[in-house]
């Protein structure tokens, strides 16, 4: 994009700010820079690519009417829009590549209704708040990322995968969880359109490129009083066997099963007293009724229970197992050693234990394995991994990815800046791009992030 375009955009934004002075604009450059970032710094590659990418301004609409006003004004003036929830995404998804406005959705947080195992809320609501509001009615969210305290419903839908709870319900994309969305078009007179079922899922993980999602309706799970525990093992095989049996066990009521293979426990200082040096560990979130069976299973395999608490109490004390799972393991490791980075792997159900063992035998501590058990989209139980590794160079990283793929293990590369190259494995369904044509005909939403749109020559048609 040329300098003249940037200047035109900035001038246009000043005009919008003058036309809509009552909106909550952020003008402080340091704050704008902060609100242009997410957790892409986990990746040294993305850190380099996204360096210096900032919005020209940030606005926080207080309600749907204000959202509509700012979106309409941006459409009229061809100003790019990047949507932001909690800003905890890992791929620079909420970082604007071409300036423009970041729309901070955190004030659109109203729960519309909760009943019969379903709920509907505005997308700026934090997941922990939605969960809290569902509990009095006997329900909770089916799956949340380990960032549930900060992350928003819209951000999970727009940029996430699933997480804690995916052991029961699979990823968020499993049909039956997302029931519908209400999304706004980016047009001079924005319209709200309701998408249901499979069509709604075409806006999932699209990084806010093909619609502004204002409300989400989703299926909930029966609420439970979860507990958490840690089990440690000196044998890696026994540790894996335990986690797998727990994951498969139909009588075990669970919400998360996470494995930290040695040496990963050394990167989790808040749990040190429960993680003896040199041991492999399994951190779980289970129903209280399943704790005795889990302990017996662990002991039968030579393991030992080192910790147990209610999740509610552990959250209050800021040492919950939940905030050590998924990419929180990576976060804690990065705090201990900034030279570390990570990958995202998924194993084939039924072959997953063998694949994990082969990976360990091949790479040793070069790829330190942290596993998360889930049910896949097909319902089969398997595990995924967010392994830690030392960042040596981009070439080394790509070589490790190539070797892992050669072993038949899927790698969703987290060091990429476009929608297609991550979990979509190179290309997105044509329906996802078709929705962009419908919701964002001028290509103003998060420009540069949807490769198919750029390749079709549609990028920023109005702004060029
Ligand atoms: C420590 C750590 C742990 C994590 N663990 C997990 C995990 O367990 N599971 C998981 O899936 N992810 C995980 N993540 C990634 C991230 O936290 C989650 O995906 C989270 O749900 C993102 O929500 P957010 O509100 O922070 O989204 P943001 O980062 O604000 O946005 C994410 C994407 O969604 C888009 N978006 C936001 N709101 C809207 C909207 N209203 N309409 C359209 N697009 C929108 C944004 O433009 C952006 O592209 C983790 C990240 C970190 C840093």
Describe this structure in words.
The chain contains 16 helices and 20 strands. It is of the alpha+beta class. The longest helix is centred in the N-terminal third of the chain and has 17 residues, at 3-19. The structure holds flavin-adenine dinucleotide.
Distinct helical segment count: 16
Q: Mean pLDDT across all residues, rounded?
A: 96
**Radius of gyration over all CA atoms, rounded:** 22 Å
Architecture of the domain at 227-411 in CATH?
A: 3-Layer(aba) Sandwich
> What is the fold named in CATH at topology level of the domain at 227-411?
Vanillyl-alcohol Oxidase, Chain A, domain 3
Helix content: 25-40%
- What's the CATH class label of the domain at 227-411? Alpha Beta
Please give the structural blueprint:
Elements: H1 3-19, E1 25-26, H2 29-34, H3 44-50, E2 57-59, H4 64-77, E3 81-84, E4 101-104, E5 111-115, E6 118-122, H5 127-134, E7 139-141, H6 153-159, H7 166-169, E8 178-184, E9 192-196, H8 197-201, E10 212-222, E11 227-233, H9 236-248, E12 254-260, E13 280-286, H10 291-300, E14 304-310, H11 311-316, H12 327-336, E15 340-342, E16 345-346, H13 352-363, E17 370-375, E18 381-385, E19 388-390, H14 394-406, E20 410-411, H15 430-439, H16 451-455
Parallel strand pairs: 2-4, 3-4
Antiparallel strand pairs: 1-2, 5-6, 6-10, 7-10, 8-9, 8-10, 11-13, 11-14, 12-13, 12-17, 15-19, 16-18, 16-20, 17-18
This protein binds flavin-adenine dinucleotide.
């Amino acid at each position: 994009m040329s300098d003249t375009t940037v200047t035109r955009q900035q001038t246009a934004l000043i005009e919008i700010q003058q036309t809509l002075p009552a909106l909550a604009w952020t003008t402080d450059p340091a704050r704008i820079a902060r609100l242009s970032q997410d957790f892409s710094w986990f990746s040294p590659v993305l850190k380099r690519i996204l360096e210096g990418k900032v919005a020209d301004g940030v606005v926080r609409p207080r309600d749907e009417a204000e959202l509509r006003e700012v979106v309409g004004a941006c459409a009229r003036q061809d100003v790019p829009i990047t949507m932001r929830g909690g800003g905890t995404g890992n791929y620079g998804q909420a970082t604007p590549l071409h300036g423009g406005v970041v729309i901070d959705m955190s004030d659109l947080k109203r729960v519309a209704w909760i009943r019969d195992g379903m709920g509907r809320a505005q997308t700026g609501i934090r997941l922990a708040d939605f969960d809290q509001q569902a509990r009095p009615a006997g329900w909770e969210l089916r799956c949340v990322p380990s960032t549930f305290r900060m992350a928003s419903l819209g951000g999970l839908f727009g940029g996430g995968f699933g997480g804690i709870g995916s052991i029961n319900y699979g990823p968020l994309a499993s049909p039956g969880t997302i029931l519908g969305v209400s999304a706004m078009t980016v047009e001079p007179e924005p319209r709200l359109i309701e998408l249901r079922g499979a069509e709604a899922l075409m806006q999932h993980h699209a990084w806010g490129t093909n619609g502004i999602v204002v409300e989400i309706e989703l299926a909930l799970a029966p609420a439970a009083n979860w507990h958490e525990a840690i089990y440690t093992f000196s044998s890696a095989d026994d540790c894996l066997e335990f986690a797998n049996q727990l994951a498969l066990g139909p009588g075990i009521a669970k919400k998360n099963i996470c494995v930290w293979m040695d040496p990963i426990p050394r990167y989790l200082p808040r749990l040190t007293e429960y993680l003896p040096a040199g041991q492999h560990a399994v951190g779980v979130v289970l129903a209280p009724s399943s704790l005795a069976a889990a302990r017996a299973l662990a002991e039968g395999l030579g393991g030992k229970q080192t910790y147990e608490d209610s999740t509610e109490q552990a959250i209050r004390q800021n040492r919950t197992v939940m905030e050590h799972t998924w990419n929180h393991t990576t976060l804690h490791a990065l705090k201990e050693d900034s030279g570390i980075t990570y990958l995202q792997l998924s194993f084939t159900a039924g072959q997953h234990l063998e694949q994990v063992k082969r990976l360990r035998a091949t790479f040793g501590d070069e790829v330190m394995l942290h596993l998360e058990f889930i049910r896949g989209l097909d319902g089969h139980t398997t595990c995924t991994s967010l392994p830690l590794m030392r960042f040596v160079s981009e070439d080394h990283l790509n070589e490790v990815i190539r070797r892992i793929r050669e072993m038949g293990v899927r790698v969703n590369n987290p060091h990429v800046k476009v929608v297609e190259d991550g979990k979509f494995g190179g290309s997105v369904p044509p329906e996802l791009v078709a929705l962009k044509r419908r919701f964002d005909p001028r290509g103003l939403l998060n420009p540069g992030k949807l490769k198919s749109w750029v390749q079709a020559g549609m990028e920023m048609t109005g702004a060029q």
